[in-house]
Amino acid sequence: MTPVAGRGAGAAPRSVDVARLAGVSQKTVSRVMNDEPYVSEDVRRRVLAAAEELGYRSNNAARALASGRTRSIGVVTLGTALYGPASLLMGIERAVRDTGYALRVVNTMEGESAGIAGAVDSLLDQGVDGIVISEPIDEAGGAVLSARLDVPVLVLGAPPPFAAPHVVTAGIVSHQMARAATEHLLELGHTTVHHLAGPQRWYSARDRLEGWSAALAAHGRAEPAVVQGDWSAASGYAGGRELVADPEVTAVFAANDDMAIGLMRALAEAGRRVPEDVSVVGFDDTPVAAYVTPPLTTVRQPFDAMAQDGLKLLVHAIENPQSEPLPMADPPVELIVRASTAAPR
Amino acid sequence: MTPVAGRGAGAAPRSVDVARLAGVSQKTVSRVMNDEPYVSEDVRRRVLAAAEELGYRSNNAARALASGRTRSIGVVTLGTALYGPASLLMGIERAVRDTGYALRVVNTMEGESAGIAGAVDSLLDQGVDGIVISEPIDEAGGAVLSARLDVPVLVLGAPPPFAAPHVVTAGIVSHQMARAATEHLLELGHTTVHHLAGPQRWYSARDRLEGWSAALAAHGRAEPAVVQGDWSAASGYAGGRELVADPEVTAVFAANDDMAIGLMRALAEAGRRVPEDVSVVGFDDTPVAAYVTPPLTTVRQPFDAMAQDGLKLLVHAIENPQSEPLPMADPPVELIVRASTAAPR
DNA sequence: CGCAGTCATGACAGCGCAGTCATACACCGG
DNA sequence: CCGGTGTATGACTGCGCTGTCATGACTGCG
Which of A10, A89, A290 is closest, CB to CB, to B233? Predict the structure, then answer.
């Protein structure tokens, strides 16, 4: 009935089973599976054939227990489907997979009790070799990570080294991109540029605000009051209602495309034309940005490249403990100019 | 210097260390950590205190090895930041976390060699107790899953039971939602409704097409030729260019909001007004749908509820092997009517 | 008072791998 | 022909936990 002897037929084959079939020791099977040196071609082939025949799959838990490494990386994300964070997460997944690690994901909702520290803790409980914190925000009480953090951490999106005890690698900044967007408007001839900002608890929102501010300062322009949004189109619309009250406003840099779209709706309802009366720049180059009315000038972030670069650092830190962190190149800025920006009239 | 004796001070504490400190056996520590019965309150407190003091974290690999269960669930997603799939993924993460499992994620890019089967395989390699396939698409060669599949699988978005050997639970359908969207247009008085479809390799795209078709059939209307898109606003725009050529078109149901936005842009460029000349309905209720011009009538999917319901089934299948699959209620349809739809003139 | 039944705990084995060390053989140069 | 060096393999052990079974202590009841 059952071809397998001993332990129930349904039981998954182990390396000893493969070893028996191939006529070698269990250790040799382990060698073959891990591509270790000092295995003859003949034996390697026999082992692989035996493994194939039995449908052998090495047991990860056992490997992790014996080797002390889980070969997995955990990522902490803000549980939102916003285009930026979602794109970055996809990029991280790809990058993690490329490095041969597995990916574990934990979200942290804004307002959730445990916050980022709780999410990190849960990853540590699960056992990961490294952690990525994507799009961090300020938590109540500051960015205090777990005190028992004993794996490298990569923070994507935090400008200065994130406050953390163990190994920490800082990530990308959208500062320059925001600056480029603002300068585009200034160069078109606008006297100044207003800013529709993201929630300031987000590092990326602060980054963009600083980039905007730096551009104005570099050109010696006055810095108008910032209008606060929360990334949503709804908040962009609300911010837009404020801005339309001021006839001096001729150019607005929104911290993301969704808010820019809400803003443009508020402008349209107020009878202000884009770009004739007001120029608008967004951020992210969401898939719809090119197709709204008018098509939106925006900034594209190289999510995949950022994730790949960051992961390279993280994996380096994992596999070469106490070595110098690698330097990280700044990603390229890409400003996409469309019809929503023009010279002031 | 180092408070910890024996093994290097940096080594993570094990349950025996906790046991020693609490003056109990290692097994009792295990009992406390797993909330097993037959532990006195006094001992429980002492163990917890000792664990706290040492910063004890139970080793997952060892637990998985000893118990044969990993307490983790894997999810296969299409690596896209599209609003629907991304929202569903976030919902899945929340739902998985609520059940006490950990989440492992593998993407499968369209056109990637291994495809869904490869992703499932890699999850099985990692060791998961259950698998969620989110937003499945047809692969070359059909939906053939791994032959060595030995854990329950939940397929979110496949109408009929997905072709799989082991335990399989079918998920949600957007059929009725598509039908509701189409009927909304018919009830406004449109003679017929055109459809801007998603890529037909996606089950959800086929579902929506079928819902549209069913609505037309139920009202005895002719079924116009379907225009094919790929979910992107760009493809919606391209499809729109086709549709504007036909003056008979007065109502279009797009399979997602992005395509609807592209379509509206094409209509605008052709001088066709929305909704006066053409009514448009989207699908998803993306965050910007309410703020484009005109605000888009659309259908909202209860991603969180779908993920939660589905996970309930999956966890049930994991924890009660060979029991009947639980029945699954259909999620509520929510049609959001905005300014992009009106009666024909 | 004695025995069965509960409750609380510990001893011990073993999950399936990878690390360490020992061993066996082949080959090299002096 | 012998010791040294490199290659190929296996025996054995242990990673840190859970499962099983044994053992005591403490009930309750006839």
Answer: A290
Read off the pTM. 0.92
Is any atom of strand C within 7 angstroms of residue A12's beta carbon?
A: yes
Element (H, E) at A321: none
Q: Is the CB of B47 under 7 A from strand C?
A: no
- Mean pLDDT, all residues of chain B: 88
Q: What percent of chain B has pLDDT over 90?
A: 68
- CB-based burial of residue B329 (10 Å sphere; 0-12 exposed, 13-18 middle, 19+ buried)? exposed
Chain A hits for B82, CB-CB cut-off 8 Å, are: 287
* Pairs across A and B, CB distance < 8 A: 168
Delimit the CATH 3.40.50.2300 region(s) of chain B: 70-172+303-332, 174-300
Nucleotides in chain C with any atom closer than 7 Å to protein CB: 7-12, 14-20
CB pair distance less than 8 Å for B57 and A262:
no
- Fold type of domain B15-58: 434 Repressor (Amino-terminal Domain) (1.10.260)
In contact, B280 and B264? CB cutoff 8 Å: yes
| B259-289 pLDDT tens trace | 999 999 999 999 999 999 999 999 999 999 9
Residue count of chain A, please give it.
345
Residues in chain B with CB shorter than 8 Å from the CB of A65 are: 59, 61-62, 65
Q: What angle do CA B156, B162, B165 make, to 5 degrees?
A: 120
Q: Tell me which residue in A90, A264, A288 faces B81 most closely, judged by beta carbons.
A: A90
Smallest CA–CA distance from B77 into chain A, residue:
A90
The label of the residue with tokens 């490997």 reads A63
pLDDT band at A142 (very low <50, low <70, confident <90, very high): very low
Quick one: which residue's CA is nearest to D9's C1'?
A28
Instruction: Provide the positions of strand D that have an atom within 7 A of a protein CB.
Output: 7-12, 14-20
Facing residue for A104 by CB, picked from B79, B82, B104: B104
Q: What is the pLDDT of residues A252-272, one digit of tens each?
A: 999 999 999 999 999 999 999
Is it the case that residue B326 has pLDDT exceeding 90?
Answer: no
Contact B299, B180 (CB under 8 A): yes
In 3-state terms chain B splits into helix, strand, coil percentages (rounded to 5) of 40, 15, 45
State the span(s) of chain B assigned CATH 1.10.260.40: 15-58
Its CATH class, for the domain covering B174-300, is: alpha beta
Q: What is the pLDDT of residues A64-109, one digit of tens each?
A: 999 999 999 999 998 899 999 999 999 999 999 999 999 999 998 7
3 state DSSP class of A227:
strand
Domain at B70-172+303-332, CATH from 3.40.50.970, 3.40.50.150, 1.10.1270.20, 3.40.50.2300: 3.40.50.2300
pLDDT exceeds cutoff 60 at A160: no
Residue B80 in contact with residue A90, Cβ under 8 Å? yes
